[in-house]
Design a protein that fits this description.
Elements (H helix, E strand, L loop, with lengths): L2 E2 L7 H18 L7 H8 L3 H12 L3 H12 L12 H5 L13 E5 L2 H5 L6 E9 L2 E8 L2 E8 L4 H9 L6 E4 L1 H11 L9 E5 L3 H11 L7 E2 H8 L5 H9 L12 E2 L12 H14 L3
Parallel strand pairs: 2-7, 3-6, 8-9
Antiparallel strand pairs: 1-3, 3-4, 4-5
Length: about 290
């Protein structure tokens, strides 16, 4: 992952994600007809050979396997009641713990006073770096990572303002070089490394929800209702949904693994196509 400037935050991996997003949308619209590689490649504006290379480099599996995973994500009728959404993917041949292990995260919480001051006195460095899911906006403090957001081309300014609004009184410094070591770790973790420190600032209820998200295993899913039962009561499912949506550190705190009780995808702050891509990518990585 190479640092990107604010003028050009979208590097090769981000462009690959754009192509993958186009492919995912095409597959969703034509899922019943099970499109061939040639069809998907045409929708991406690439030759089949080029599409094959993009798929394999991005997902680590063949286009045929990734298409099967995406199909299973939507095939709720094929799942047993209450089973994890991606069980069908494992039944299709995925086995083993996966080479991309669960990320170990060390959480430090802001004090109530710090939260009330909305970041006053907090120094936040930020920068854009490639991710497998488009450009990533990383924000860090001396005490740990405090923000990770995704952006599509043309929306980077909106994403930056959205993240800054969470700590409006903080001091912000654009420093992609300082962010680079953290960005390099997140999608290619090393089991020998120390846990990545994150700094969270939220209400006590939000903190409970975010900690519950950290307990969802890599490649698995849960429901908003199950999270609500875990942190307090099933009746708090709407409050849980709101807290999940306010998660400031995407991927690391895996709000994308939370679905509706019906197994529908539900919402995602950074877009449902990206949520689907995250779920399929995790399932694919679990194969190795």
């Amino acid at each position: 992952m190479n640092p990107q400037t604010d003028e050009d935050p979208f590097g090769p991996q981000a462009r690959d994600y754009e192509r993958m997003a186009e492919a995912i949308s095409f597959i969703e619209e034509n899922q019943l007809s099970q499109p061939r590689l040639e069809d998907v490649a045409a929708a991406m504006g690439l030759s089949p050979a080029h599409a094959q290379r993009i798929f394999t480099r991005w997902a680590g599996v063949s286009p045929k396997r990734l298409l099967a995973l995406l199909t299973h994500v939507d095939a709720r009728a094929a799942l047993n009641d209450g089973a994890p959404l991606l069980d069908a993917a494992f039944e299709a041949g995925l086995s083993g713990p996966g080479r991309l292990h669960d990320l170990f995260v060390s959480v430090e919480a802001m004090t109530p006073g710090e939260v009330k001051r909305k970041g006053e006195g907090l120094e936040i460095r930020y920068g854009w770096h490639d991710t497998p899911f488009g450009a990533g906006l990383y924000m860090t403090t001396p005490r740990g990572l405090c923000g990770l957001a995704f952006a599509d081309p043309g929306t980077e300014g909106t994403a930056l303002e959205d993240m800054k609004a969470r700590w409006p009184n903080a001091i912000y410094t654009h420093d992609p070089a300082a962010i680079a070591p953290i960005a390099a770790r997140i999608f290619t973790p090393d089991a020998e490394e120390e846990p990545l420190k994150v700094l969270l600032g939220g209400t006590p209820f939000q903190m409970q929800v975010w900690r519950a998200l950290l307990e969802i295993p890599f490649g698995e899913t849960t429901s908003y209702t199950d999270i609500a039962k875990k942190v307090c009561t099933e009746r708090a499912v709407r409050a849980v949904g709101s807290a999940v949506g306010r998660n400031p550190i995407s991927f690391l705190i895996p709000c994308h693994r939370v679905l509706r009780q019906t197994k529908a995808l539900g919402g995602y702050h950074w877009g449902l196509t990206r949520k689907k891509a995250l779920l399929a990518w995790e399932a694919a990585k679990a194969e190795a």
